[in-house]
Amino acid sequence: MAEDWQEAGFGLYVHWPFCQAKCPYCDFNSHVVANVDQSRWADAFEREIARYAAETDGRVLRSIFFGGGTPSLMQPETVARVLNAARAAWPFANDCEITLEANPTSVEAARFGGYADAGINRISMGIQALNDDDLRRLGRLHDVADAMAAFDVARTLFDRVSFDLIYARQEQTLLGWKDELRRALDMAVDHLSLYQLTIEEGTAFGDRYAAGRLRGLPDEDRAADMWDVTQEVTSEAGFAAYEVSNHARPGAESRHNLLYWKSGDYVGIGPGAHGRLTLDGARWATETPLAPGAWIEKIETTGSGEALRETIDHADRLAEFLLMGLRVTDGIDEIRLSRLGGDVLFNNISKLVSLDLLERRDGHIRATPQGRAVLNSILREILSD
Amino acid sequence: MTDLSHIRNFSIVAHIDHGKSTLADRLIQSTNTVAERDMKEQLLDAMDIERERGITIKANTVRIDYEALDGQTYVLNLIDTPGHVDFAYEVSRSMRAVEGSLLVVDSTQGVEAQTLANVYQAIDADHEIVPILNKIDLPASDCDRVAEQIEDVIGIDASGAIRVSAKTGVGIRETLEAIVAHLPPPKGDRDAPLKAMLVDSWYDSYLGVVVLVRIMDGVLRKGDQIRMMGTGARYGVDRIGVFRPPMTTVDELGPGEIGFLTASIKQVRDTRVGDTITHEKKGTETPLPGFKPSQPVVFCGLFPVDSSEFEDLRTAIEKLALNDASFSYEMETSAALGFGFRCGFLGLLHLEVIRDRIEREYDIDLITTAPSVVYHLYMKDGTMTELHNPADMPDLTYVDHVEEPRIKATILVPDEFLGDVLKLCQDRRGIQLDLTYAGQRAMVVYDLPLNEVVFDFYDRLKSVTKGYASFDYQLVGYREDNLVKMQVLVNDEPVDALSMMVHRDRAEARGRAMCEKLKDLIPRHMFKIPIQAAIGGKVIARETLSALRKDVTAKCYGGDATRKRKLLDKQKAGKKKMRQFGKVDIPQEAFISALKMDS
């Protein structure tokens, strides 16, 4: 019998942990470092890829994703070395999606050509806002004109270009957002990520918020209004949500991210990267050290960048399957849910169906539009005893 | 065995925070009763809760040997009594065991309501009273004014009041001398049959029940066979002793002395405070007058948040009850809360102390239901039943009328806050009985329904007077009024733990306030929730808690799966802290908070 991960495939995530500046809202593993010895980093990535290749012989790679930090600070040669190592390790699927996250500045746009030559075929740009005041408040180093210019460069070089916006910002009005979103949709090629600003602990925004100095954030009702408007405007433009925060024209969805949401297997390399691997029938979670220095030294001294490898038990597998899978508009496959031991949850699921928060159709369980807005509560309810 | 003329027995009367425990500490310290290294703040307050809240709950005793200026050594027995109104009963019985009192008044504050309540008990017990003006080290101290006030308000001579700073030690020697010079020695006859007063008793995990006694006549020795005249129980005395303050055994206790005995008594309930102890053979014929047993006046339900902890709760309650005869309990079943206990307390502080001890010492999370007083229901068939729990209110067609307990409340308050205090009392259905002035302070006396006071009256009083008012009360009896049971329905299901008795005229306002409060206290759910207050079948107030609209993580990719899963586990654990009523989760703090009125 096929293993469950094969329903979604196999991918590679590469984490580049460096940024030019730390954004005040970001809780990703990022570090500001003046000089990075990129060839040393390429060596480390190559060794990690070779190590995982030995464990996953014969798998076909469906996607690669360079995330960060700011992967557009990587030299094209570094990217090329990683991709060459991956090609040597696994056969690529014909339509293998290879994405790199980029900041929209002219310096970085100058490297886009090199990335295309190395094999990158999709760019995801962190534009974040289409007005300069808000970009400054979000601590971004670019302005709207920079972003537009970089976006134009990307469009000429890549078939697939996506960008991110953050909304529910300080002092943002519903009308202002609607207008900004329309402009974004005019620009968009076929994919857009729209994130509600989340105040995370341990970030500059988190500290300011705790001290009561982050004003003008929307309350739950206003945030919900913005969410509703977002769904409405994007649907009208043919960019309906295919995941909580991701919108695409049909067929242009991010294959790599779908692989996460549909519980595929993925190798995660780089500081703080997580992986999921099904080996000998068990599903394993891997983690690496968060600090860049710790990660690279670990590889150089021990030959492995892994700080942790542990099996995920049935209950946790089921929880992950649900919490990732219900984010997707298509929902989860009932047969897979049953195979993972989810039959015990059908009573809870039925209650949520009767509240019109979940629906069952075509062998799938999915969140209804209003359900998707309260997915965290739904998950607590589904998984409650 | 000390000669009667060299014994002085006394208590200290004071308002809370006027420095009673600190003064007791200094008296103990200055006579070297306790070695310096064993000295700690508020030595006599044994429980953590007593030290934390700065209150004395149980009466405590210490025997001090004092070498007076006349060269003689005196035995001074101090019984430290609770200052809070809930424990007034403990005060009154302790007073019966001694001949005099130190009246401690904070010289920066003046006479307060509890000072009055307690000093009247001392006067009732025929005490000699030595006034003490404390905290003279503070700049705001005004001894002349306060002495005058003591004379005006209490009516005792304060011209010789001793000026003390218990903090710095000034006036401690003078206080000790005054105890010897002004307080009378006890009376008693060594050769008469044994007559001892059972002042208090408590459970000690090593010794079993310890009985605090005051010998009136005769001599008590180790090994004696004794009889409790009230209960008829007989015991062999295992051990007798005194408190220094650690328990120290002695060979005998003679007339006028205060000490303890242990006698293989199983539980505190086997002893009756106020009982007379005598010898089994050749005992006295005439018992002491005795005391009325204390009656619980406030009842509430205590339920474990986690229903699997019911047995642990039972154990905790049984253990606490062993040491506290004034605390009553019986099992209760609630449709919504499952198994728990209906408990009776002397007052709200007593309730809070017991609840805190269960949560802290036994680590059980509790849901406390609306505190209720005891109502008298006069039924159409002519019988009267006591109602301890509003949930048990019978159908109105069987009830002729309802009576509620009333109190006489005495409030002392600076002039400038008088208006707010009068308004508060009026709002709580009070009837003004008296209003007098003593200098800048007004003394108001109100007749108030106890049910308007038990919950948050004291908090409100402190808040409207910025903490300057003091308050004391005594129960005065029952009176009929138009009282109805108000139910609260959450998502159309009655929540019996929130049922309460209210005055009909105030029901709408109360119901509205309650629904508004609950709307804030209950988190939004995935569906909208009506919250209603009703009398009988009639809805008198309604709020709607709208459905949750937004609760979703914006970003969740491969690196987030582990973290989000762990977060979900944590949230599920948090959900267990709430209680489910039908489909609705109500946080445990909602039960108490919903009842607090803002005005």
Structure description:
The complex is a heterodimer of chains A (385) and B (599). Chain A has 2 domains: 4-259, TIM Barrel, CATH 3.20.20.70; 320-385, Winged helix-like DNA-binding domain superfamily/Winged helix DNA-binding domain (Arc Repressor Mutant, subunit A). The longest helix of chain A has 18 residues, at 38-55. The mean pLDDT of chain A is 95. By secondary structure, chain A is an alpha/beta fold. A 9-stranded mixed β-sheet of chain A has the order 9-10-8-7-6-5-4-1-11, with helices on both faces. Chain A is built from 16 helices and 17 strands. Helix content of chain B is 23%, strand content 34%. Chain B is built from 13 helices and 34 strands. In chain B, the strands form 7 sheets. An 8-stranded antiparallel β-sheet of chain B has the order 11-10-16-7-8-15-12-13, with helices on one face. A 6-stranded mixed β-sheet of chain B has the order 2-3-1-4-5-6, with helices on both faces. In chain B, strands 22, 23, 24, 25, 26 and 27 form a 6-stranded antiparallel β-sheet that branches. The longest helix of chain B is centred in the C-terminal third of the chain and has 15 residues, at 507-521. Residues 53-57 of chain B have low confidence and may be disordered. Chain A binds chain B through residues 13, 15, 67, 195-198, 220-221, 223-224, 227, 244-245, 257, 260-261, 266, 268, 272-276, 285, 287, 316, 319-320, 323-324, 327, 352, 355, 357, 372-381, 383-384, and chain B through 524-527, 548-559, 561-562, 564-565, 568-569, 571-572, 575.
